[in-house]
Amino acid sequence: MKRIYFFLLVMISSLYLSLVAVAQEQEKPKYEMKTYQMVLLFKGPNRSQDSTEAKKIQAAHLANIQRLANEGKLIVAGPFLDDQDLRGIFIFDVETEAEVKELVETDLAIKTGRLRYEIHPWMTAKGTCFK
Q1: Residues 58 and 102 in one domain
Q2: Domain count, the chain
Q3: 65-81: buried (b, 16+ CB within 10 Å) or exposed (e) per residue?
Q4: I need a surface site. Which of 57, 75, 110, 117 has the fewest CB within 10 A?
Q5: 100, burial (CB in 10 Å: exposed 0-12, middle 13-18, buried 19+)
Q6: In a domain, 131, yes or no
Q7: Tens digits of residue pLDDT in 41-100
Q8: pLDDT tens-digit map of 19-37
Q9: Is residue 42 domain-shared with residue 13, that is, in the same domain?
Q10: Which domain holds residue 24?
Q11: Residue 100: left if φ>0, alpha if ψ -120 to 50, beta else—which one?
Q12: Which residue spans within the chain are E strands per DSSP?
């Protein structure tokens, strides 16, 4: 009789552990990668504007950032604070480099040459920092 109880205990324990293992496997999040378009902004070749004109360009630059963010295309934008040639960053949630180029070139700071840019496709795990 003790052997039957022991056998049943082992079988029930094994079944329980198997069910726990299956449940844990199903709970693991799916690891998916997503591509974004990263834009590095550098000092441009034309920075000779007087302070009044530079302020107007900066105001238009910030308004353009807000517009692109409101459209859901620009998800990160900001300056670097170390006053080097690399001035800032944009991260776009769009599919192609061509679309990024079109969007970036709407910026008055780019149009006037106050800033120049480089586009780099960038991947991160989906859900780790953005949607």
Answers
A1: yes
A2: 2
A3: beebeeeebbbebeeee
A4: 75
A5: buried
A6: no
A7: 999 999 999 999 999 999 999 999 999 999 999 999 999 999 899 999 999 999 999 999
A8: 666 666 666 667 788 899 9
A9: no
A10: 1-29
A11: alpha
A12: 33-43, 74-79, 86-92, 115-125
